[in-house]
Structure formats: structure tokens, C-alpha cells
């Protein structure tokens, strides 16, 4: 966690990781176990500029300072605890309001990542279903296990699982993460670069990463989800990006 002193007092900022430019294949092929049609067609994406992404999803510690400063109300934690757990029960509109507040308070260009930036960062140079390979184990991420009796229901504090090659924790599992893009059923017509896709169904926005209540095929690097901009859920959170 990084803190910044501004006119409004101490502001908690997410710990950020610099992500280098590069290119990658976005989406999944029919051969990948768990593949969905909305992950088609696989496309070559160029990430032309470096950017920063939160090392962890935004936590309750960070969000609660925003809520206290703006009077926006505290999202419920479902009794699982706050602190270093990822914030939940936030909508896409809430997430963008948090980023806007941080921009004003810190003077830094915080924002939601694009869907392409998110997947590029999640893969961290890999081409497998998960950034650690093609198989899942309880050592890798927080997800819904086949034997539900062994699953911790609800979120867990961030950083419990190993990071990917970029140093990012919890990109897969724990909570779904809102991104900037409007929802489109396929990648046909998507931007050639890593900018957000702001055409399509913009009343629904994309979420990535899967959560504690999803089975392994739903938390692959390529898995996509969507919901309305005001919809809140007990496994919806956010991870911020920052222009460099």
C-alpha cells in the first residue's frame, strides 16, 4: 500500500506494478478445456505502451478510505471481514468513481484497465489456460473446488497465492474484476490495440478473472463475464490501472 498526502488528508493508493509493452494472443481456441464462444476469434493484440496495474485487487482498507472521504457508503463484506480482503459488492459505476476520486486526490491518472490490458497482464507471457499451466490446484488460486466441503466460502485476503511472472497476485480467482470495456459477444471488430472497446452494449461492462465461487474453467485467463453498470455482487471487485 502506498499513501499520499493531499489537501484532503492521507489517501491510500494501491501498490502498482509496471507492465512492459508487448504483444499476445487474446482469447482461446476450441481446443482449450472450458473454452466459450465469446472468447473467439483469437486475435493478435499489440500493447504499445507500458502501463501499471495494481499488484492486488483493491482492498477494503483502500476502499473504505474513499467511502469515508466521499460519504458514498461502505459496501457490505458479507461477514467475511474487511482489511486486506478484496473489496466486494461494488458496481462498475462505483469502481469508476473510485478511480476518479484517486485521480483528483493524487494527481495520478488512475483508471480501470482495458479488457486487453487485463488479459495481457494476467497471462504475463504465457499461452496456457492459467498463467501457471493448464491444470488447477488449491495451491494456485482461490476457487470453488470439486469437493465443496474443502472450499473456503467467501473471499480470502489478497496475496495468499503466488504471483504471476509480472508480480501480480490474485489475477485468477477470489473476485471478478471490472474493466473498462463495453460488452460484445465476440471479438469481431475489436480494437487492434489494447485500448478499451467502447462500442457495443455499454450498459453492460466486462469482468475478468473469476472468483471464489467459480469452478476452474471459469477462471481461465481467457474467461469473460459481464453485467450491468449498477449491478453489485459478493464476488465483484476491481483492480486499477495507471498510465505511465
TrEMBL record:
Bias type Polar residues, positions: 1-10
Chain positions covered by the region annotation Disordered: 1-39
Protein name as catalogued: Formylglycine-generating enzyme family protein
InterPro entries, alphabetized: CTDL_fold (IPR016187), Sulfatase_Mod_Factor_Kinase (IPR051043), SUMF_dom (IPR005532), SUMF_sf (IPR042095)
Entry-linked PANTHER family: BLL6746 PROTEIN, SULFATASE MODIFYING FACTOR 1, 2
Source organism of this protein record: Plastoroseomonas hellenica
Domain Sulfatase-modifying factor enzyme-like: 13-241
Highest taxon of the lineage: Bacteria
Amino acid at each position: 500500500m502506498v499513501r499520499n498526502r493531499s489537501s484532503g488528508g492521507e489517501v491510500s493508493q494501491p501498490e502498482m506494478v509496471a507492465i512492459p509493452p508487448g504483444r499476445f494472443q487474446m482469447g482461446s481456441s476450441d481446443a482449450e478445456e472450458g473454452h466459450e464462444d465469446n472468447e473467439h476469434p483469437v486475435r493478435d493484440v499489440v500493447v504499445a505502451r507500458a502501463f501499471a496495474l495494481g499488484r492486488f485487487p483493491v482492498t477494503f482498507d483502500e476502499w473504505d478510505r474513499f467511502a469515508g472521504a466521499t460519504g458514498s457508503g461502505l459496501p457490505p463484506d458479507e461477514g467475511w471481514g474487511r482489511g486486506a480482503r478484496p473489496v466486494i459488492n461494488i458496481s462498475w459505476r462505483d469502481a469508476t468513481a473510485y478511480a476518479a476520486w484517486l485521480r483528483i486526490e493524487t494527481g495520478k491518472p488512475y483508471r480501470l484497465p482495458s479488457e486487453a490490458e487485463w488479459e495481457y497482464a494476467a497471462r504475463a507471457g504465457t499461452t496456457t489456460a492459467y498463467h501457471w499451466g493448464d491444470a488447477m490446484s488449491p495451491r494456485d488460486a482461490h476457487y470453488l473446488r470439486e469437493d465443496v466441503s474443502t472450499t473456503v466460502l467467501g473471499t480470502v485476503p489478497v496475496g495468499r497465492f503466488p504471483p504471476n511472472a509480472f508480480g501480480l497476485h490474485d489475477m485468477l480467482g477470489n473476485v471478478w474484476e471490472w474493466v473498462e470495456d463495453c460488452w460484445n459477444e465476440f471479438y469481431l471488430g475489436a480494437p487492434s490495440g489494447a485500448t478499451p472497446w467502447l462500442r457495443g452494449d455499454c450498459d453492460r461492462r466486462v469482468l475478468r478473472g473469476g472468483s471464489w465461487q467459480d469452478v476452474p474453467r471459469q477462471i481461465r485467463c481467457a474467461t469473460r463475464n459481464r453485467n450491468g453498470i449498477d449491478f453489485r455482487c459478493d464476488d465483484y471487485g476491481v483492480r486499477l490501472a495507471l498510465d505511465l
